[in-house]
Structure formats: structure tokens, C-alpha cells
Amino acid sequence: MVKLEENFRLGKQSMVEKLKQILLFFIPDQCHDTYLLEHHFTDVPCFKALVSKLLGFAIIAGSLLVKVPQIMKIIKSKSAEGVSFIAVLLDLIAITSHMAYSYVNGYPFSSWGDTSFLAFQTLVIAELILYYQCYPILSYVFSMAYGGFAYTLCSGKTPLHVLTTMQSLNIPILLAGKLSQAYTIYQNRCVGQLSAVTVFLLLGGSLARIFTSIQETGDSIMIITFCSSTFANALIAFQVVCFWNQKRARDSEQTYTSAHSAAAVKGGTKCD
């Protein structure tokens, strides 16, 4: 009986220690004593840091699937109509630059880890656009070129000042990419194969990243970048709401002359 009680006590201590180890993973270093020794759970700075840490990991978890709806929609329809390749390319460059900048600077994984998953999914979307535009070989070449680009940035061979410059350029790159997508939607008057789920998840993620960047890095460049991204994502989300019910207009041989058809090809796909 005594041995059973002793085993129970040791098991309980072991569970407590494991729980503490799990908590230490989420609690910022400066708050270990505040929470675990002093039990001061109402400390405002530590609470904000804890919320930021949890929010950061929640964003990372969400990033695992955030662009999957977009990928599946393109595959299902066998078309990337309405999805701007330029916007995807610029988005991929910005995401990769941000990932490399944060990794080399040694920022907490919770503040940038989602970019690694976003980069992979964005690469897949770029490949699909090229593939369904009848450039299958180019899609493979693009993948290999991107792999070399990402490795060069993250391997430590790229000087930090270059990464800092690239991170600063992320602001106009992000805006140019998102505004390119916004222009495509406006020109077509419909969202095409653009996934509304992905658009709104990206908006929520960029908005949350403003808070986590302030709390975990204090990097003004990153904060401004996410503010710009939130603005652009909000614009696209607004367009999705406005043009969601618009259907793609089918060209009719009876109502369009060859001159009108040529103009449609030049101007892009039109929607009702």
C-alpha cells in the first residue's frame, strides 16, 4: 500500500514537471518566475506576451491549410482564371524574404513560422497557374529556381544588410502584388477561381501578425509590412464581397463580332 502511494506521488510529480515543461514552451522567458514561482497571473505585460505567443502558434497552425482551399479550387476547375500570376509571384518573393530575414535574425519561431508553410503553398499555386496556362515545363523550372533562391536567402550566405533591404522592399512588393490581384478582380468584375476562404484567412492572419510582431520582435519594418499587408488583404476581401455573385460572361458568336472577340482577349476575361 505504501509502495502504491509512493508510486502515485512520484507519478503526480512527474505529471506536474511535464506540465511545467509544456508551459515553459509557451510562456516567455521573462515571465517564468512571474507565473511559475510568484503565481502573479494578473501581470499585464506577461499576459500580453503569453497571448502573443499563443496567437503566434495559432497562426502557424492555421497557415498549414490557409491556401489549401485556393489550391483545391484551381485543381478542381483545372483553371487558374482570375488568379494573377504576378500577384502570386510577388507574394512568394515577399513571404520568402520575410522568412529568411526573421530566421537569420533569430526571432522566435512563433513570430514567423507561418511563412514557411505559406511559402510552400504559394509556390504550389504559382506552379498550378503556369501548368494550367499550358507551360508545364516552365512550372518545373520555376520550382527549381525558387528552391535555389530560398536556400540562398536562408543559408546564411546572404549578408544581413541585404536581407534587411529586401524586408524593407517587402512593403512595396506586397502592395504591388495585392493591388495587381485587386486590379484583376476589378477588371473582370468577378473573383474567378479566387478562394474567399483563403482571402479572409489571410486577412485575419495579417491583422493578428501586427500584434505578435509588436510583442515579440518590436521590429518596425515587420510591423509596417503587416500593416500594409492587412490594408491590401482588406481591399481584396471587400472586392470578394462585392463581386462574389457575379458570373463569368460567356462569349456568344451571335452577339459578338470577331473584332469584339479580339478586344475581349486583349482586355481579359469579363464578368457580368
From TrEMBL:
Record Pfam families: PQ-loop
List, alphabetically, the InterPro entries matched: MannP-dilichol_defect-1, PQ-loop_rpt
Transmembrane region positions?
80-104, 116-134, 194-214, 220-244
What is one GO biological process annotated to this record?
A: oligosaccharide biosynthetic process
- Major subcellular location class: membrane
Q: Which UniProt keywords apply?
A: Membrane, Repeat, Transmembrane, Transmembrane helix, Transport
Q: According to its UniProt record, which protein family does this protein belong to?
A: Belongs to the MPDU1 (TC 2.A.43.3) family.
Put simply, this protein is called Mannose-P-dolichol utilization defect 1 protein homolog
